[in-house]
Amino acid sequence: MPAIIDLAPTHTARPRKATSDSLPARILIIGTAVGFMGLMFVLPLIIIFQEAFRKGWEGFAEAFDDRATTHAIWLTLKVAAITVPLNTLFGLAAAWCLSRFRFRGRRLLSSLIELPLWVSPVIAGMVYVLLFGAQGLFGPSLKEHGIKIIFALPGIVLSTIFVTFTFVARVLAPQMEAQGQAEEEAAMTLGANGWQMFWRVTLPKIKWGLLYGIILCNARSMGEFGAVSVVSGHIRNKTNTVPLHIEVLYNEYQFVPAFAVASVLALLALVTLILKTLTTTQRGAA
Amino acid sequence: MASPRHVLPGFRLSLGFTITYLSLLVLFPLSMLLWKATSGGWDHMISTLTQARVLASLKLSFGASFAAALVNAVFGLITAWALERYTFPGRRLLDAMVDLPFALPTAVAGIALVTLYAPNGWIGAWLAKHDIKAAYAPLGITIALAFVGFPFVVRTLQPVIADLSMDVEEAAACLGANRWQTLTRVVFPALLPSTLAGTTLAFGRAVGEYGSVVFISGNLPFKTEIAPLLITMRLEEYDYSGAATIGVVMLAASFLILLASNLLTQWSRKRTGRA
C-alpha cells in the first residue's frame, strides 16, 4: 500500500541524542516549534473554553437547556451510530484484502480508498445533491415515492460516510501488512474455519489499531461540517447537526452558547488525541 | 490475480464488499460530478469558469493554500526535527498536539480562529495596532489553511527523519564538514523530497477546506470568497451545472496533487533508501 502519509506512525523510537546541534541551535529550534504550535493550536483551544465559560458555569449549562441544542446532539449521535459501524466493516474488509492478498489493481484500489480524504467536503456533499436533489438524477422519482434524502437524515448519513470513508482502512491496512500473516496461516492449517481465525487470531492482533481507527472515524463523523452543510438544508430541530448548530448560534451572535457547544466537540477532540497516544503506545508494544 | 496457493480465506468476500461499497458510495457519486458539469457542453463549462467571480475564488483558494503550504513547510520541518531529534519536557504532548487539526471539527476551529484574529480578539487587536488586517482578509484565510495543513508536513517528515542514518552525518563530520555544511549538503537534500511531499499534501488539503475558513474569511465576492464556498452558493441557487463545473476543476486539482505527492514519496524513498 503506497502509504502517502502515515496517519498513525507505529514507531515509538526514542529520539537519538542530539549530539550534533549546538545548544543555542537546539533552543532556537525547539522554541520555534513550541511557539508556532502554541500560537496555532493551543491558543485556539484556550479561547474556546474561555468563551464557553465567559458567563461562568451557569451560562455554560444554560446553553444545553435548549431544545434545538439537545436535538442537534441527538441527531449527531444518530449519524455517528449509523456511519461508524458501516465504515468499520468496510475498513476491515478493505484492510483484509489489501494486506493479505496480491492481486492486479491492488495499488489502484488503495489509492481510490484514499480519495475521499482529498476531495473537498463541499464536493462530498454536492455529489449526493446531484444524485438525490430536486433536480438530481434520481430526484424526480424519489419525489414521486415521497422519499426524502437531501435535507433529511439519509443525505446527512451518506455524506458523512463519504467523508469518514478512509480512516479505519487507512489505519488497519499498513498495520496488518506489517504484522504479517503467519499466525493466520497457522490457524488455518490447524483446522480453524474463517470466522474462528478472524475472532481468535486476527482481531486480538489488530485490536488497538482498530480502536484507533474507530475513534478517528467517530471524531470526524461527529464533527463534519462542510459536507453535511451542503445536504442538510439547515432546518432547525430537524437537520441541524452539532457543528451546523454551532454555526447557527454563532451567526445569531449567541457566542456563549456557540462556544459552550463547541467546547464539547473540542473535548471530544482532546479525548481522541489522548486515546490515539495511548493506542499508539499499545500498538508499539504489541 | 490471487494465486491458488493462498491458505487464507475471504479474498472474494472482502474484495467484493470493498469494491461494491467503494463504487456505490464514492465512485458512482463522484462520476455524477463529471456528468453534471459536462451536461451543458464545453461552451457552458468554459463560460462558467471564466466568470470573474469564479476566477477570483479559484485564484484565492489556490493562492492562499499555496502560501499556507509554504508556512507549513518551514514550521513543519522545524517541528518534525525538534520532535524526532531532541528530548525536552513536553515533547510527547507536543507530538500528540500535532494531530489536533485531524480531530478538532473544522467549524469549531473556525469560530475559535475568527475570535482570536478579529479586530477585538487577542491577536487581532495586536495586529490592528500595526495596521494588519487578519480576519475577513486573505491573511486570515491563509492562517486557517495553515492550521489544517500543518500535520501533513510533520507526519510525512517524522518517519524519514527518524530513519535518517546518523552514520552519514558522522561520516560528513569525520571528513571535516562543519555542522552547517553537514546540514545543508547531507541532511537537507535527504529531507527535501519528503518535505515537498508533505507540503503538497498540506496544499491539497487546504484547497478544498471549508469549515475552518468560512468564519474567518468574511466571504465577500471577488475578495474573500473561496471556491468551496462559491460551490455552496451555486447549489443554493439551484445552479447545479455551475457548481459541478467548479467542483470538477477542484477534483482534477486533487488528483494532480495526490499524484505529485506519490511521485515525491517515491523519489524520497529512492534518495533515503527507505523500503
What does this structure look like?
The complex is a heterodimer of chains A (286) and B (275). By secondary structure, chain A is an all-alpha fold. In chain A, 75% of the residues lie in helices and 0% in strands. Chain A is built from 13 helices and no strands. Chain A has helices at 23-52, 56-63, 67-100, 106-118, 121-132, 139-144, 153-164, 167-179, 182-189, 194-223, 226-232, 242-251, 255-285. In chain A, α2 (56-63) crosses α13 (255-285), α5 packs across α7 and α12 packs antiparallel against α13 (255-285). The radius of gyration of chain A is 22 Å and the shape is globular. Chain B is an all-alpha fold and 275 residues long. Helix content of chain B is 79%, strand content 0%. Chain B is built from 13 helices and no strands. Chain B has helices at 11-38, 41-49, 52-85, 91-97, 100-103, 106-117, 122-129, 138-163, 166-174, 179-208, 211-217, 227-236, 240-272. In chain B, α3 (52-85) crosses α10 (179-208), α6 packs parallel to α11 (211-217) and α12 (227-236) runs antiparallel to α13 (240-272). The mean pLDDT of chain B is 90. The interface between A and B is large, with 112 and 109 residues.
Summarize the SSE layout with pairings.
The complex is a heterodimer of chains A (286) and B (275).
Chain A: H1 23-52, H2 56-63, H3 67-100, H4 106-118, H5 121-132, H6 139-144, H7 153-164, H8 167-179, H9 182-189, H10 194-223, H11 226-232, H12 242-251, H13 255-285
Helix pairs in contact in A: 1-13, 2-13, 3-7, 3-8, 3-10, 5-7, 5-11, 7-10, 7-11, 8-10, 9-10, 10-13, 12-13
Chain B: H1 11-38, H2 41-49, H3 52-85, H4 91-97, H5 100-103, H6 106-117, H7 122-129, H8 138-163, H9 166-174, H10 179-208, H11 211-217, H12 227-236, H13 240-272
